[in-house]
From TrEMBL:
The lineage of its organism: Eukaryota, Metazoa, Ecdysozoa, Arthropoda, Hexapoda. This is Alpha-mannosidase. GO terms for biological process: mannose metabolic process; N-glycan processing. Its EC number is 3.2.1.-. It comes from Asbolus verrucosus (Desert ironclad beetle). GO terms for molecular function: carbohydrate binding; mannosyl-oligosaccharide 1,3-1,6-alpha-mannosidase activity; metal ion binding. Pathway: Protein modification; protein glycosylation.
Length: 1134
């Protein structure tokens, strides 16, 4: 008895100790950038530690009362509604497991995520939208605001107005000109002038944002000039703001690409200037995403600024002095995600709209508009050169604007940006701006009764002065985002969510290639195989090609790149850069694949050697990819292929190849024959290719796995049972069709018919035009009616263009005549193909255990080249009672609730859909996943609408100066998933402004965006290859996303492996036990050594998101804990 008690006591003590240690480690991990955290730990964290011990004790007793605890917690989330039919009856054990998953995900005590109540913020953007009238009264001088009154007695000797005039030049890396054209004709001169003009007076300041340009210029500088730049930075005369490669778009960009573009800039700054940006500057992206503050904060930035926000929102926030706030994530219950944000109050970022509310006055202080400089003020009052005679009057006029502006903010510190697009390109502009302003400042500062301290400043100078005056907690908290942007009237910028969709799709394809190339190159580098040592060499290895590819992707994240708002020739330039990036990634992948699959005694390969062709052939920057045709037959029997899975969970999904014969077998990595399907390839109408066939099979791919398969040609008589030929039905076809070799018994019908296709999970019914009519899951049938419709352009002076969507009314359905409907059915996949006006529409049901079979896949090849002023949408109409609510994602990172407002026009109810949108009611959710960023809305209850392409015959007067007529046939891929609640719960309370993907939607989106890379071996005789390379020991769970896993992170001259992890919160209320088994979730921790081959002596460090700030070391074999929605970066040092 005594022994038992002793054991129990020691056991408990051990548990306490272990948990204590875990907490200590976790606690240490909070301390950043300190080499000796123990000192801080002692002094700063003692109180904290005490609290934690108390928490621990509470936790322990909680564990003791686990059952009771779970019961209480589940009670909070379970709806009393028991009428929800549970189609898959859970066993008690499953039910317990489910509940524990729910509890784990929702109640991790140290995590900020809060879903069982709506986290309190002072400003919630959806609530603001509900409240605002969106009227547009004329505010007078400040057209979109009101008349601001000031009393000069508000300031005195002790309480002076502090003015920071921040000179800036906005340089688009491609818009009217290509990045290179701009550089040569403008940007180069701007920066070169800076080098001369800033040192002339130490009081002069300047900020710069775009590192793509800065790095080009750097290459042109000599050592002495570089020293001047470094000195300007050291003196705090020059500040690099944000420090991204570009100022990224925030609507269409994927969060991983945003990290890429920021990291590209930050790494450059680190290596060349040893510089870490502190403040963010986004003055021209067309609407602001809540993902941006998360990423910037994790990169170590402390403040950010933004400009393009709906004028009604600006006015509302300005009227209550809420333009500066702590931007908080929707789900954040404790403020861990807060980012200090400044919103510019007025219409633009040019000088007339930045000094104060009256553009007519402010314009007079843009000295580039002095007579004779080629620019003038549209308000017809020109600036005056400042001299002794007029300085008093002019200073008071300007000061009045500064004072009025300050009334919109909580502090006495005023920010007055001084610049515009491509400003300061001529030395005289520097002289007139800096000299005239200095005279004004000198007068203001020496005239004590004005009670002002005015000066040039950097952006961070402004924020520091502000923080000195008021503590951060004095500022309100805000959650939500700032879409859809309107700059005036009903000019909603929702057209650019879809403009130039061909390149938007290309962006996602390039991102998937970069992720595949980065991960496989890292695996090859860490493998220790022959050839693994030189590949990451910057000069002679593959790193250079990958680095160039990253630059192309980063460049396209610019707010005139992925937005589709550049001139035709600039779009072509982006396209060509992305095409060569894609080709470079393919080359890197095939090379790394060869290294990984080669035997121990293989020789070091030549850098340019081609071992595999990637089965994704791109002949031109503006053409849809083609497939290789695998030509095999009795003479050349064998084709070796390899498949790579760039995701960190194992996948069993359908892959397809084009082969020249219908008689084949497929062998897996153990060279066993596996099931495969041969299907015809439809060319025009019901005509099928007589020379090529589609071969499909289910590839069984481990996490980050590289696996080889073999396709063998057979004799016709061999016909193994594993090879199945699809059955073919053709409706609405008069006359015969020629069956391809190997196929017989084609059903041809001259009449139309409804029909149903199904896989192991769902059945899809189609109407007699071959369009989706309903989806059936388990025993429930949900009507899902698919159609296409078009918007026209309204007949007013201002019309839709690259940016603006100004429709002429509701969308009009596209009339479809009798059309030939081609249906194939087989054990691995079934599909229907119809040629409609403007769209070749294919719906596929895969039959695999993988994420591709969780819904239907829609492929639309859209061609609207022969239309004019035409915008094409796809609609899905259901009976889901979503009322006026729908959900769209931000940058593929998070989901938020939208509301359709009748007080707003159609174009205002359109939102970006970077990766998904859904509508749901109490029981059913329909999710549309997209392979390209596009615009979306739900304009009627139960309906989802996605804009596919836009062709617009005019400019929309926002500076682009051209129509959008460069449409190309574009392939869009969507997955549609319908789910019913299998448990009567909901992830978040009704009023919560967040949404979350279901498990099925999340994995289906991940796999849609990261398809398997298909590699075809160039040498058919290949004796040395191994059948697979599998390095992952343990999988993380599908909720962990490896956003980046790459080589080439240089710290103190040494190369390291860097990786970025995100943990997604998943709404598990729609997950049945089968799904949870197929796609297991993590328990909130990962073990890096299970993912990567780590040598003895390897070290793991936590870092900031762009790998600039090294933080604490982490035990490489230990478990890393992460909260849902958290993103963390790490460095692996070898
Ligand atoms: Zn711009």
């Amino acid at each position: 008895m005594r022994l038992k008690r002793a054991v129990a006591l020691i056991g408990s003590a051990l548990v306490v100790l272990i948990i204590f240690m875990i907490y200590s480690v976790k606690d240490l991990s909070e301390i950043t950038g300190k080499k000796t955290p123990f000192i801080d730990f002692e002094s700063l964290k003692l109180v904290n530690m005490e609290n934690r011990i108390k928490q621990l004790e509470r936790d322990l007793s909680q564990h003791g009362n686990e059952v009771q605890d779970i019961r209480i917690q589940i009670k909070n989330i379970l709806l009393p509604n028991s009428s929800t039919h549970n189609s898959l009856k859970d066993s008690p054990a499953d039910s317990r497991r489910f509940k524990s998953v729910m509890t784990d995900m929702l109640y991790e005590s140290n995590c900020p995520i809060q879903l069982n109540f709506v986290p309190k913020t002072n400003i919630q953007m959806l609530e603001v939208y509900k409240r605002l009238k969106f009227d547009n009264p004329d505010g007078g001088a400040w057209k979109q605001g009101w008349k601001i009154e000031v009393d000069e007695k508000d300031w005195n000797r002790q309480n002076k107005l502090k003015v920071f005039v921040v000179p800036h030049s906005h340089n688009d890396p491609g818009w009217i000109k290509t990045v290179e054209e701009y550089y040569l004709t403008q940007t180069k001169h701007i920066l070169s002038n800076m080098l001369v003009k800033l040192p002339e007076d130490p009081r002069r300041k300047f900020i710069w944002a775009e590192i793509s340009y800065f790095s080009m210029w750097w290459e042109d500088l000599g050592e002495d000039e570089r020293e001047v730049v470094k000195r300007l930075i050291r003196n705090n005369q020059l500040e690099i703001v944000t420090g991204g490669w570009v100022m990224n778009d925030e609507a269409n960009s994927h969060w991983i690409s945003t990290i890429q573009q920021l990291t590209e800039g930050h790494q450059w700054l680190q290596q060349n200037l040893n510089y870490t940006p502190q403040s963010g500057w986004s003055i021209d992206a067309f609407g602001m995403s809540a993902t941006q503050p998360v990423l910037l904060k994790e990169m170590g930035l402390r403040n950010m600024l933004m400009q393009r926000v709906h004028y009604s929102v600006k006015k509302e926030l300005a009227s209550k002095q809420l333009l500066e706030f702590r931007w908080r994530q929707l789900w954040d219950g404790n403020g861990k995600t807060d980012m200090f944000t400044h919103m510019m109050p007025f219409y633009g970022y040019d000088v007339p709209h930045t000094c104060g509310p009256d553009p007519k006055i402010c314009c007079q202080f843009d000295f580039k508009r002095l007579p004779g400089h080629g620019l003038h003020c549209p308000w017809k009052v020109p600036p005056q050169e400042i001299n002794d005679k007029n300085v008093a009057r002019r200073a008071e006029l300007l000061l009045d604007q500064y004072r009025k502006k300050s009334k919109l903010f909580k502090t006495n510190v005023v920010l007055a940006p001084l610049g515009d697009d491509f400003r300061y390109d001529h030395p005289t502009e520097w002289d007139v701006q800096y000299n005239n302003y200095q005279k004004l400042f000198d007068h203001m500062n020496s005239n004590l009764k004005l009670n002002v301290q005015a000066q040039f400043g950097t952006l961070t100078d402004y924020f520091e002065a502000l923080h000195k005056e008021r503590k951060e907690s004095d500022f309100p908290t805000l959650s939500g985002d700032f879409f859809t942007y309107a700059d005036r009237d009903d000019h909603y910028w929702s057209g650019y969510y879809t403009s130039r969709p061909f390149y938007k799709r290309m962006d996602r394809i390039l991102l998937s290639y970069i992720r595949a190339a980065e991960t496989i190159l890292t695996l090859a580098y860490l493998s220790g195989k022959p050839g693994s040592s030189w590949i990451t060499d910057r000069e002679v290895g593959l790193e250079k090609q990958l680095s160039d590819a990253r630059k192309a992707l980063s460049l396209f994240q610019h707010h005139d790149g992925i937005t589709g708002t550049a001139k035709d020739h600039v779009v072509i330039d982006y396209g060509k850069k992305m095409l060569s990036a894609l080709t470079a990634c393919q080359h890197v992948i095939q090379h790394a694949a060869h290294i990984l699959l080669s035997g121990k005694d293989a020789e070091t390969p030549d850098k340019n050697a081609l071992f595999y062709n990637v089965d994704d052939v791109r002949h031109s920057h503006d053409a849809i990819a083609e497939r290789y045709q695998i030509t095999i037959g009795p003479e050349l029997r064998t084709k070796r292929i390899a498949i790579y899975n760039s995701l960190t969970f194992s996948r069993e999904e359908v892959v397809t190849f084009h082969v020249s014969t219908p008689y084949v077998e497929v062998l897996d990595m153990k060279r066993r024959r596996i099931k495969c399907q041969i299907s015809p390839i439809f060319e025009y109408g019901s005509t099928m290719s007589q020379t090529k066939y589609q071969l499909s099979f289910v590839a069984d791919m481990p996490a980050l796995g590289l696996v080889s398969y073999v396709i063998n040609a057979l004799w016709e008589y061999e016909s193994p049972t594993e090879t199945v030929h699809a059955s073919i039905k053709i409706y609405n076809q008069y006359g015969d069709v020629q069956a391809p070799g190997g196929f017989s018994g084609i059903e041809v019908s001259p009449s139309a018919s409804e029909f149903t296709l199904q896989n192991n999970r769902i059945a899809a019914s189609f109407n007699n035009l071959g369009l989706l009519k309903a989806l059936k899951i388990a025993t429930n049938t949900i009507p899902v009616h698919l159609d296409f419709a078009k918007y026209g352009v309204r007949q007013t002076a201002e019309r839709s263009g690259a940016y603006l969507f100004l429709p002429d009314g509701d969308a009009v359905p596209i009339q479809i005549e009798n059309t030939i409907v081609n249906v194939i059915e087989g054990p691995i996949m079934s599909s229907v193909t119809v040629q409609l006006p403007y769209v070749r529409h294919i719906v596929t049901l895969y039959n695999s255990p993988g994420a591709d079979s969780l819904g239907i896949e829609i492929e639309n090849i859209v061609d609207i080249q022969k239309t004019s002023n035409f915008e094409l949408v796809m609609r899905l109409s259901t009976n889901i009672k979503n009322s006026d609510e729908f959900f769209t994602d931000l940058n593929g990172y998070e989901v938020l609730k939208r509301k359709r407002f009748h007080k707003l026009p159609i174009q205002a109810n359109y939102y970006p859909m970077p990766s998904m949108m859904y509508v749901e009611d109490k029981t059913t959710r329909l999710t549309v996943l997209t392979g390209s960023p596009l615009g979306t809305s739900s304009l009627r209850e139960g309906q989802v609408e996605v804009m596919l392409d836009r062709r617009l015959n005019q400019d929309d007067n926002l500076g682009l100066g051209q129509a959008v007529l460069d449409n190309h046939p574009t392939k869009h891929i969507f997955r549609v998933i319908v789910e019913q609640k299998t448990h009567s719960c909901q992830a978040a309370v009704d009023e919560h402004p967040s949404g979350f993907p279901t498990l099925a939607a999340f994995v289906a989106s991940q796999t849609l965006l990261n398809p398997f890379v298909r590699l075809l071996r160039t040498e058919d005789e290949d004796a040395t290859s191994q059948p697979s390379y599998l390095s992952v020991q343990t999988e993380f769970g599908v909720d962990f996303v490896v956003a980046t896993l790459r080589t080439g992170i240089t710290i103190k001259g040494r190369d390291h492996v860097g990786f970025v992890l995100q943990r997604q919160f998943i709404d598990v209320c729609f997950s049945d036990r089968e799904l949870l088994k197929r796609f297991p979730l993590s328990q909130g921790s990962v073990n890096v050594s299970g993912l990567l081959p780590t040598e003895v002596g390897s070290k793991l460090y936590k870092t900031s998101l762009s790998f600039l700030l090294m933080k604490n070391e982490i035990h490489i074999k230990g478990d890393l804990l992460m909260c849902p929605m958290e993103i963390q970066a790490f460095i692996l040092q070898r």
